[in-house]
Design brief:
The complex is a heterodimer of chains A (about 450) and B (about 220).
Chain A (H helix, E strand, L loop, with lengths): L9 H11 L5 H9 E5 L3 H4 L12 E5 L2 E5 L3 H10 L11 E5 L8 H17 L2 E4 L3 H9 L5 E5 L12 E4 L2 H10 L1 E5 L3 E7 L8 H12 L8 E6 L2 H6 L2 H10 L7 E3 L4 H9 L22 E6 L6 E3 L7 E3 H4 L6 E5 H4 L2 H11 L9 E5 L3 H9 L2 H8 L2 E2 L20 E4 L15 E4 L2 H10 L10
Parallel strand pairs in A: 3-4, 3-6, 4-5, 6-7, 9-10, 9-12, 10-11, 15-16, 15-18, 16-17, 18-19
Antiparallel strand pairs in A: 1-2, 2-8, 13-14
Helix pairs in contact in A: 4-7, 8-10, 14-16, 14-17
Chain B lengths: L2 H5 L20 H6 L15 E8 L6 H4 L2 H4 L5 H5 L10 H4 L5 E4 L11 H9 L3 E4 L4 H10 L3 E3 L3 H4 L5 E5 L4 E4 L5 E3 L5 H8 L3 H8 L6
Parallel strand pairs in B: 1-2, 2-3, 3-4
Antiparallel strand pairs in B: 1-5, 5-6, 6-7
Classes of the chains: A alpha/beta (about 450), B alpha/beta (about 220).
């Protein structure tokens, strides 16, 4: 323990015991530390009052450090609070509202719901962010190791990239956390993933997670936690926090409840470089025990992964990009919470520099946050995009959710670095979405058809 | 098993009449004996028994299919959400179903987004329960939270033909196909989830008890 260590007191001693426990997974430790009251499913442990330990399958009531809702889940959470006539938040400093999905408002109906959120934030004094995607804002400013984050957004699990316990739930349950500071959680079973080796040229974290989802299936990690570990320091170093965020975000597409990279030197450096704008009182380095029980263990050698494309209609319909090459596209979308970070925009700029978007193709680049947006301007990427014929938008979920800034018409085809390719996700029910890395999307934008990116790097 | 004998009088199949579709919420017991309103917040009674016609869907029915983002993100009105129930497969689905109909599906029902609007849209469109081989985690939580019974029953998809009449017993957590007659046991849930469901969801539970089920 170095960065985040414990002061000595009786409850702290109990936490120290959990941290040092050799037989608990990350999820078991993270939930046990936040546990207020456990109901063990194991009769032998149920009466053991000395233990705060929550093991896989147990149900625990946990203290929540951050409860977020965005503009398509927040209004319903506010409505539920109003219906329950709850007028007071447990702790406004732990409540975050984010207007990101349809920002700026695309029409009057959306504008009214945005206004409802602003009024709520102003009345209760909670955090309100507009114009950065919630997950990226949480990554850049709020998440810390050991934090318990619940979000009214399935991709809340992204914050696991900093060693937090982060997962998505629905609006009314978020409202209940706003009211009480607590929620119930079932402790998930854990799949351990061991990464080794390095990516081939043109292959990125997104290809890794697409490949992974293709093998596990759309519900392959449903109810489960994914614990990402490294076999060596070279692989560890090469998988940046941006890349880890891509993996933890996209883990939702195989149903994961939690996807976590336990604290390491990269986590520490990232947090030092990007100071938190929230009290880190309960920050803790949580490391899984060496004899923890896993439901599955998966080894991945990164060198074996190719550029992958998923789709259409199901995120686990994954094949190598080379096998999909030649499928004509109407649009390429580079952005979203999954792949709208500066690392992603850099790759897109490298590929688009000095080249032109195909005449039959639109290319839209959407950064994940205002910070990424500003950095893209500073580094000259925006000039490159504009010269290539691409559109550079404000930071928002945008085209990913098919409601503004790049919705698809009937039968249109899009290659996208966004999170999902479900039927009608980006517009018309007959439109089709293929998911890929930003590199594959950028190369495809130039060719007007699905193209592997190796030749462009 | 003869379904009519085992179910008693209060479970006859009902069809909504247009004149009653606009009426205000009514308790479940009257819903089973009268033509019910099209949209309600349903305060269940314990041991509630639901009966309805089955609509059968496949695996991996995600929340974008159940209600696309562009519709759910523009309203806070459950009756408006109901107009887009299952839009991704059939935009007219909400017009075709009757009050109390039951949705049957394969694996991983409700995958994808955390949108609570998905179970809300189904409930307010008239669906009284969803029975599936398995559910995606967040949809399952949301269904209980908003008072839409979600029952995980192995083999349900292959045993059910479109239009079969199913009986769901929320006290026993069982599903009976009246054509076949066998009683299938759904995966059990913690007592507090069942109580919340039987009270009509988290908001109704809180209104009644002035506390949350897990606190």
């Amino acid at each position: 323990m170095s960065t985040y260590s414990l002061a000595s007191s009786s409850s702290q001693n109990q936490i120290a015991k959990i941290l040092d426990n050799d037989s608990m997974t990350f999820a078991e430790k993270a939930i046990s530390i936040k546990n207020k009251r456990s109901q063990s499913h194991d009769a032998n442990r149920r009466n053991d009052s000395s233990s705060k330990m929550s093991m896989a399958g147990d149900i625990a009531v946990v203290d929540v450090d951050l409860a977020m809702a965005q503009d398509s889940t927040g209004p319903l959470a506010i409505r539920s609070l109003n219906e329950m006539r709850i007028d007071k938040l447990y702790d406004p400093s732990k409540v975050l509202l984010v207007i990101d999905h349809t920002f700026p408002a695309a029409d009057e109906k959306v504008a009214n719901l945005h206004a409802m959120m602003r009024n709520f934030a102003s009345k209760h004094g909670c955090m309100l962010i507009e114009g950065s995607i919630s997950h990226q804002h949480i990554l850049e400013n709020l998440a810390y190791p050991g934090m318990m984050i619940l979000g009214g957004d399935s991709h809340t699990c992204q914050a696991g990239c900093l060693g937090a316990f982060a997962t998505g739930i629905g609006s009314t349950e978020i409202a209940s956390i706003w009211a009480t500071g607590q929620i119930w959680l079932k402790v998930p079973e854990t799949v351990k993933v061991l990464l080794s080796g390095n990516f081939k040229k043109g292959v990125f974290a997104r290809d890794l997670i697409l490949d992974f989802i293709g093998k596990l299936g759309e519900d392959g990690a449903n109810y489960r936690a994914l614990e990402w570990t490294f076999s060596d320091d070279i692989t560890r170093r090469d998988l940046t926090i941006d890349s880890r965020a891509c993996i933890t975000n996209a883990s939702m597409e195989c149903g994961a409840k939690l996807s976590v990279f336990p604290f390491d030197k990269l986590t520490e450096k990232y947090i030092n470089d990007n100071p938190r704008r929230i009290k880190e009182d309960s920050a803790l380095e949580i490391h899984p025990g060496s004899s923890a029980t896993y439901v599955d263990e998966i080894n991945i050698d990164c060198i074996e992964i190719a550029s992958m494309v998923s789709g259409p209609d199901h995120p686990d319909a994954v094949r190598p990009a080379s096998e999909m090459a030649g499928i004509e596209i109407d649009q390429a979308f580079i952005g979203s919470a999954t792949n709208g970070r500066i690392e992603d925009l850099e790759i897109a700029a490298r590929i688009l520099k000095g080249r032109k978007i195909h005449r039959n193709t639109r290319c839209i680049v959407t950064p994940a946050s205002v910070r990424v947006y500003e950095e893209a301007i500073r580094r000259g990427y925006v000039e490159i995009y504009l010269e290539s014929g691409a559109v550079f938008t404000n930071a928002t979920c945008g085209a990913c959710v098919g409601t503004h800034l790049g919705a698809l018409g009937e039968d249109e085809i899009c290659i996208s670095s966004s999170s999902r390719n479900f039927v009608g996700r980006m517009g018309a029910l007959s439109s089709k979405v293929y998911l890929s890395s930003p590199a594959t999307a950028a190369a495809s934008a130039i060719e007007g058809k699905i193209t592997s990116p190796e030749g462009y790097l | 098993m003869d379904s009519e004998d085992s179910l008693g009088d209060n479970t006859s199949t009902t069809t909504p009449s247009p004149s009653q579709q606009q009426s205000s919420p009514s308790p479940l017991s009257s819903e089973l004996t009268q033509s019910p309103p099209k949209s309600t917040t349903i305060p269940f009674t314990t041991e509630a028994i639901l009966q309805g016609k089955a609509w059968v869907f496949g695996d991996d029915i995600n929340t974008d299919i159940i209600i696309p983002f562009r519709f759910k993100s523009r309203t806070n009105d459950p009756n408006e959400m109901a107009k887009y129930a299952m839009y991704g497969i059939d935009p007219d689905f909400h017009k075709k179903i009757g009050q109390g109909d039951i949705l049957v599906a394969g694996r991983n029902f409700g995958g994808g987004s955390s949108r609570e609007q998905a179970p809300v849209a189904l409930k307010y469109a008239g669906i009284s329960a969803v029975v599936a081989e398995s559910f995606a985690r967040i949809f399952y939580r949301n269904a209980f939270t908003i008072g839409l019974p979600a029952l995980e029953v192995q083999g349900i998809k292959d045993r059910t033909v479109q239009g079969d009449v199913l009986v769901v017993n929320l006290g026993q957590f069982t599903v009976t196909n009246t054509r076949v007659g066998d009683v299938l046991q759904a995966k059990s849930v913690p007592d507090f989830m069942k109580k919340m469901l039987l009270d009509g969801g988290l908001v109704e539970y809180f209104k009644k008890n002035q506390k949350f089920p897990w606190t």
